[in-house]
TrEMBL record:
This is Polyisoprenoid-binding protein. The keyword Signal applies. The keyword Signal applies. Gene3D superfamilies: Lipid/polyisoprenoid-binding, YceI-like. It comes from Rhodoferax lacus. Keywords: Signal. It holds the Pfam family YceI. Residues 25-190 form the Lipid/polyisoprenoid-binding YceI-like domain. SUPFAM superfamilies: YceI-like.
Amino acid sequence: MKKTILAVAAAAALLSTVAHAENATYAFDPSHTYVTFEISHFGTSTNRGRFDKKEGTAQLDRAAKTGKVDVTIDTTSINTGFDAFNKHLQSADLFDAAKYPTIKFSGDKFTFAGDKVTAISGNLTLLGKTQPVTLKANQFNCYESPMLNKREVCGGDFETTIDRTAFGMNYGLAYGFPKEVRLVIQVEAIKQ
């Protein structure tokens, strides 16, 4: 009887540990995380830029198919490779970095195919306005990093196309610049 009680207690403890261990927290790896955007330039070429400063965390439970992600992007870190263009993008015409130094995405509705995340829905806050956004995962993977002593790393390339006018960014519409901006968040996050 004593062995049975001990066996049941041990099994319950093991199951509790396994169920609890599925929900994990991940911190974004800044050396493998990039936030980029692109917009058509008069239908001739594509203007592209990135934000050099960004941070985020994610919680992921693949067994329960749930998660949560928070991303903060520093608008003062915009980089197109051309200083004059960077300054214009940071001006009140566009990102208004002095007044709105961050862009935020918070998502808590994860869509899965098997154990792979295929989309994350949440809210994007830009220029003080918040709109619902779904980031589609072009690829998602978790692996044991040989560079980090086999710690688990999860991530992928997530993208969406936003209507910038929904956030009040209307500059250039009269010139023919489109409303649509493609946003890509490439992220790798390390299990904590």
